[in-house]
Specification:
nine-stranded mixed sheet
C-alpha cells in the first residue's frame, strides 16, 4: 500500500495524568488514536490513581504547563484543544490565557471531582473557571456535580438541565453540554448555545465500569471539531462513541474499571 504523507488532524489535550490509564491524559490520547487524529499532550498534574480512587495528586508549575503548550503550538499547531484537570486557580488562568491566544476551537471539561468523588480542583479556582476559562470555551462539558459547583443549581430533571445550561452560558462559552448521566432513567445530555437545543439520548448499559467517561466525551468532541465537524455533529458523534465505550467497559482492579476506548477496533459499528 502507498504511504500517505498527509498528517492527520491534530488535537492537543491539556490535562492531568491517570496512572491507572482509564481517565485523564491517557484516556484522551486513546480516544484520539481511536478516532483517527494525532494526539498531543500538555501535562498539568500527576496523580496516583487506580480503580479505587485517587491516592495523591501533584500539580505541575505554571511555567512547565506554559512551556509544554508553547512547544507544541509554536512548531506543530493544533486543530482543536481539550482541557481537563487544571487543579488550581493559577493553572486555570494560565491555560485560559493560552487558549485565548490560540485560534483552534477549545473543548473545556471543567473537572472538579473524580469518578470516585475525589476533589481535583481547588475550591478557590472555581471563580477562575467561571471568569477566565469558560469565556474562551467553544464547548463546555460539565457533569451535574460540576454544574452544582459552578452555578449552585442542583439538577434533578430535564427542566433543571435547561436552567443550568442557561446559567453556564452566562459565563461565556459558545456551547454547553450538560451531562445528565447521573439522573434516573436513560442517559440524556443537553447541548445548547442558548438558541438551539439538542437532547441527546442513549440506552443505559448495565455496566459499572465507567471510569473516564467525561474525559473521553470531551476528547471525542475535540476530535470531531478538528476534522471540521460543526458542534452538534461533533457532539452527537462523541456521544455515540462514548456510549459504545461504556457498553464495552471492563473490570480492572477491585473498583470501577474503565470504558473501552478501543471498542470500535473489535466491534466496528
Amino acid at each position: 500500500m502507498p504511504i500517505s504523507s498527509a498528517a492527520p488532524p491534530r488535537v492537543l489535550t491539556v490535562a492531568g495524568s491517570d496512572s491507572g490509564g482509564g481517565a485523564g491524559i491517557q484516556a484522551d490520547l486513546k480516544t484520539m488514536l481511536a478516532l483517527g487524529v494525532h494526539g498531543m499532550s500538555v501535562l498539568t498534574a500527576v496523580t496516583a490513581q487506580n480503580s479505587r480512587g485517587v491516592q495523591g495528586a501533584w500539580e505541575l508549575p505554571a511555567d512547565a504547563v506554559r512551556a509544554q503548550y508553547r512547544s507544541v503550538m509554536d512548531d506543530i499547531g493544533a486543530d482543536a484543544v481539550k482541557t481537563g484537570m487544571l487543579a488550581s486557580a493559577e493553572l486555570v488562568e494560565t491555560v485560559a490565557a493560552l487558549l485565548a491566544g490560540t485560534g483552534a476551537p477549545a473543548v473545556v471539561d471543567p473537572v472538579g471531582v473524580s469518578k470516585h468523588g475525589d476533589p481535583l480542583l481547588a475550591a478557590e479556582a472555581l471563580d477562575s473557571v467561571r471568569t477566565k476559562l469558560l469565556p474562551v470555551a467553544t464547548v463546555a462539558t460539565p457533569n451535574l456535580d460540576e454544574v452544582a459547583q459552578l452555578t449552585g443549581i442542583t439538577v434533578t430533571d430535564e427542566a433543571g438541565m435547561r436552567r443550568a445550561a442557561a446559567a453556564l452560558l452566562e459565563y461565556g462559552p459558545r456551547w454547553v453540554v450538560i451531562k445528565g448521566g447521573h439522573l434516573p432513567g436513560d442517559p440524556v445530555d443537553l447541548l445548547t448555545d442558548g438558541t438551539e437545543e439538542h437532547w441527546l439520548r442513549a440506552p443505559r448499559h448495565d455496566n459499572r465500569h465507567t471510569h473516564g467517561t467525561g474525559c473521553t466525551l470531551a476528547s471525542a468532541i475535540a476530535c470531531g471539531l478538528a476534522t471540521g465537524q460543526d458542534v452538534p455533529t461533533a457532539v452527537r458523534a462523541a456521544k455515540a462513541y462514548v456510549t459504545g465505550a461504556i457498553a464495552a467497559g471492563f473490570p480492572l482492579g477491585s473498583g470501577i474499571g474503565p470504558v473501552d476506548h478501543a471498542w470500535r477496533l473489535r466491534d466496528p459499528r
